[in-house]
Amino acid sequence: MRESCDLGLSGVSQTLLVPLAARALARRLFPAAGFADVAAERAMETLGIEPTSVISDPLSILGFIIRSRLLDRLTKRFLAEHENAVVLDLGAGFSTAFERCGASDATWIEVDLPAVTELHRRVVPADARRRRIAASLETTDWLVALELPDAPTLVIAEGVLPYLSRPAIVSLFRALADRLCGRTSVLLYDTFSFLMVGTARYHPAIGRLTRKDPTIEFRSGVRTRADFIWGEPRWHLDEIHDVLAQQPPPVALWSGIVDATFGVPLYCVVQLHLDAPAPGE
Ligand SMILES: C[S@@+](CC[C@H](N)C(=O)[O-])C[C@H]1O[C@@H](n2cnc3c(N)ncnc32)[C@H](O)[C@@H]1O
Questions:
Q1: Can you give the CATH number for the domain in which 132 is found?
Q2: Within-domain flag for 15
Q3: Ligand 1 mean position, distance from CA 130 (Å)
Q4: Cα(68) to centroid(ligand 1), Å
Q5: Cα separation of 265 and 137, whole Å?
């Protein structure tokens, strides 16, 4: 079996194989879930990795499928409402959202660390509508320098914010608001509750990686609903989708208890929008 280190990946970048493998298993293990990811199946084959060697816990696999299915629905809605849109996919890893949702008129910009960007370039065929940027989300200079078509913009951060510290997310949300102000902008991301911070080693799928490399950790989570905008008042909360509420009853019940007790779900997908452009802009 090939390991992530054989692919030139280290640290948090190794986590990209986990959601990719889960999506690649969707058709095989959860044919009734209404989600298929042929591009993920192909990528795992090209990488020479059997998906079940990366993730085997059925509830975790289903969790990743539910997350991507939710994000696909919200992404397709934005792309249907906005022609010639831009999608800025942060911590894109081997995201296959482009293959699943990429409307023919949308421009897709994917940001990840240099080793990931290089591996993706070697494995996934190039597409004129898709650009990869090698940068760390812990800095924002790349965003200031980024050439961004002047168009409605959807930012997606799938499976990445939990690995960033709160100060890094606060700074990223501010920089996104600065860069995108004046255009129609929506931001989709997933986040844990604060209860999950520091618990990566117990996660059924990520735990194996964390125990080998303790730099991989869940560093951030929300404590109250006000936290969903990460301190940046130009972002406004539209929707919260409890990912675990869509799991089988014992997990869904547990998730409901956490939400009722603490006021935020244990794990959710969130949609924010930026202040509307001023009239005439
Ligand atoms: C769990 S994977 C998710 C990948 C993809 N979004 C998906 O859902 O399939 C996390 C990704 O975030 C990237 N990442 C983590 N920290 C990052 C940082 N500081 N800057 C850029 N990318 C980062 C990792 O390299 C990895 O590709």
A1: 3.40.50.150
A2: no
A3: 17
A4: 14
A5: 25
User: What whole-number percentage of the chain has pLDDT above 90?
Assistant: 91
Asked if 50 and 41 touch (Cβ cutoff 8 Å), the reply is no
Helix (H) or strand (E) holding 89: strand 86-90
Tokens of 161: 């914010």
16 in contact with ligand 1, CB cutoff 6 A: yes
Reported as a single tens digit per residue, the pLDDT across 68-116 is 999 999 999 999 999 999 999 999 999 999 999 987 899 999 999 999 9
Residue 190, SS3? strand
Residue 18 within any structural domain of the chain: no
φ, ψ at 193 (rounded to 5°): -75, 160
Cα 91 to middle of ligand 1, angstroms = 4
Domain count, the chain: 1
| H helices, E strands: number in the chain | 10, 7
Tell me whether residue 41 is in a domain.
no
Decide whether any atom of ligand 1 lies within 6 Å of the 116 Cβ.
Answer: yes
Structural domain boundaries enclosing 240: 58-274
In a domain, 239, yes or no: yes
For residue 153 the two structure tokens come to: 């913009």
Distances (CA, A) of 234 to 190, 239, 272: 19, 16, 10
User: Which residue of 120, 160, 216 sits with most ligand 1 atoms within 8 Å of its CB, as the best mutation to test the pocket?
Assistant: 160
Q: Quote the ligand 1 centre to 67 CA distance (angstroms).
A: 15
d(CA 273, CA 238): 7
Q: Is the CB of 152 under 6 A from ligand 1?
A: no
